[in-house]
Amino acid sequence: MIIYIGADHRGFALKGKLIEVLKAGGWEVVDVGAKELDPGDDFPDYASLVAAKVSETPDHVHGIVICGSGFGVDIVANKFKGVRSALSTSPDQAYQGRHDSDANVLALPASFVDEETAVKIMKVFLSTPFGTDERYARRLGKIKAIESGSGQ
User: Fold this and answer.
1) For every one of its 152 residues, what pLDDT tens digit does the chain have, with 9 covering 90 and above?
2) Residue 27, burial from CB neighbour count under 10 angstroms (0-12, 13-18, 19+)
3) pTM of the model
4) Which of 44, 18, 43, 13 is CA-nearest to residue 30?
5) Which CATH superfamily is domain 2-148 in?
């Protein structure tokens, strides 16, 4: 599975660490940027690049987006069809985002999680399958209906 990853200046260092861990774990990683630290860059640029790639095949790839608060990249990613971004500050949140809601993008707040915690969150996110309970599939169906404009 391909992992698309992007971060602004506030998430730049954390992105580098996560890429190292991903590659060491055998993941195929596509770094959409930022490619260099630029204090004047904007999170929507990188979150939208990741989300656009995930939106192309939302059931076959994952994304990771990082900014200071995590909120900005999460909001941007969730604007794309088929993208279900989950802002996570703990491994338990990441687990629920994947297991219960089939999240395909992980949003991380670089200012609120340390590297060790972020790595744990990412590993849980990437190793957790979507749950098999009927209620999870039913809820995902409702989300997809809302997204397509046909309501619930």
Assistant:
1) 999 999 999 999 999 999 999 999 999 999 999 999 999 999 999 999 999 999 999 999 999 999 999 999 999 999 999 999 999 999 999 999 999 999 999 999 999 999 999 999 999 999 999 999 999 999 999 999 999 887 66
2) middle
3) 0.96
4) 18
5) Sugar-phosphate isomerase, RpiB/LacA/LacB (3.40.1400.10)
Q: Using DSSP bridges, classify how beta strands 85-87 and 28-33 pair: parallel, antiparallel or unpaired.
A: unpaired
Domain coordinates of the chain in residue numbers?
A: 2-148
Residue identified by tokens 């596509």 is 30
How many CA atoms, within 13 angstroms, populate the side-chain half-sphere of residue 16? 8
